[in-house]
Amino acid sequence: MQNLLSLLLTLLLCTCVRAQETTLPPVFTQAEIENAYRSPMVKTYLTPTRIVWQSDDTGEFIKNSELLLEKSNGQVAVNDPKKLRLISTADHRPGILLDFGRELHGGLKISSGIKPSKEPVKLRVRFGESAMECMSEVGGDKNATNEHSLRDFVIEVPWLGSVEVGETGFRFVRIDVVDAGVNMPLYAVQAAFVYRDVPYLGSFECSDERLNEIWNVGAYTVHLNMQDYLWDGIKRDRLVWVGDLHPEIMTVASVFGNNDVVPRSLDLARDQHPLPQWMNTISSYSMWWLIIHKQWYDNYGDLEYLQEQETYMVDLLTQLETFIDENDSEILNGGRFLDWPTSPDPKATHAGLQAMMILTFEAGSDMMGTLGRPELVTKYTDVAARLRKHTPEGNTTKQAGAMMALAGLADAATINRDILKKDGVQNMSTFYGYYMLEAMADAGDHAGAMDVIKEYWGGMLDLGATTFWEDFDINDSRNATPITELTPEGKADIHGDFGEFCYVGYRHSFCHGWASGPTAWMSQHVLGISLVEGGDAVRIEPHLGELDYAKGTYPSKHGIISVTHFKTASGEVKSLIDVPHGMKIIEVERSRK
């Protein structure tokens, strides 16, 4: 019986694959089929979970609003007498604010019923990642925008029909009638949720529920950004930013495994920025491209794909070497950028770039070994050694301090004590927070890193986040209203009242893939799973800190790795490890961790 079920499953999978190979029906010409692009995205329609606000509670201008919270198939009909009605006059234009329960990517489907006039009805639609963003006007002191994706515009809804509008990141939607003298019957308002339909192969569970939620939110944040390419944001920054890709790709590897959105995005960045251009005009982002390729090969061992990059890699490393002066200091041109909080500090920027140059040439040396270029292995190892002769001075930032520790330019324990733990989670950043956690792990402070995760990333959850944000300052949360509510007098609007650099006010993205670092970090350091040797081996080195247990899964090219770690009464960590056939386990000796 089992063999029969397996055969049926195999046949079903083969049928699905064959079906996907045909982009268009056979009535199209072969040229049309070849020129078509088939998106990997799917669309699902979701019902609102809550009415946050409506302009009228008397029943005069908004009738039966509770019907919006009932599941609908969106199909209009002529014989349904009970509908939501929006009734406008010269003095009142009804509006309603809906909450879909979590951050989504996509648009809105509005279905309208029959009415005496067949004229379409004009509605103003406002999407928001917070309730307050939906209540804003474009521009103004809180900086609401229509950049990258429209989130505030007027549409026409047809008589006895449906319309879909919008392509952005949102959780909330406000709808207002534009004209006077309208009596509009609405069948349904649904979120048209657009996402990549891929399984969550990785998982994480431990004895601390807050860490579990953070792992899941980080995974979901990246999942939303796995569109046709791997974006950094779904409302704003719908672009392939190569530096931002690194924490995202670490999360993709931990949760979704070898997904083609990664090489697709890396190749796009390479092709969009022929040398001597820096990727995204930023020198460090070209270095991240090299570091990512090294990590991706370590995980999956795709030699053919690595060989495709060889010419560009060698030329890029040759270009990078020209930006080292006689004092072995980097003198990179172009955009000199780590992350936004360090951008006004030249000493921090230099320290971080010096460290990144070392990490980049070490990654280059490793990849040249894989590609059979021993002369370049030696050359790039020597370049990294030269760069280590120069120690940047004057850095006090957590971002650059973490990079110096990771590159071996400074002692990790000292950096952790004097810089990373100073002032708690103040002066953190959601992007480089991942490297701060990595540096804390290098210092052996895994318990401290988990405390940082719970306080800093957990601080966003406390404010209603269902995805992690482009930036977060823990000080901003002290008198702030959660994003799920309208801000009362005397309280701060966490979305509209804060932000700097490129993320002032409502322009601030509340779903940014670079903020997902804790998900990858917990899989790698709490579960202790690292793929090595091109994904043919796995290193297991768990760190439970104060946790009683941690268990989870991790995808590999051979299948799913499963681990369970628990503490005995004596404090010793015991493990149950299950790896797929064909993988070697490198288990690090440990006693109490």
UniProtKB/TrEMBL annotation:
This is Alpha-L-rhamnosidase six-hairpin glycosidase domain-containing protein. It comes from Neolewinella antarctica. Coiled coil: none annotated. Residues 1-19 form the signal peptide. The keyword Signal applies. Residues 201-526 form the Alpha-L-rhamnosidase six-hairpin glycosidase domain. Keywords: Signal. InterPro entries: 6-hairpin_glycosidase_sf, 6hp_glycosidase-like_sf, Bac_rhamnosid6H. It comes from the Bacteria.
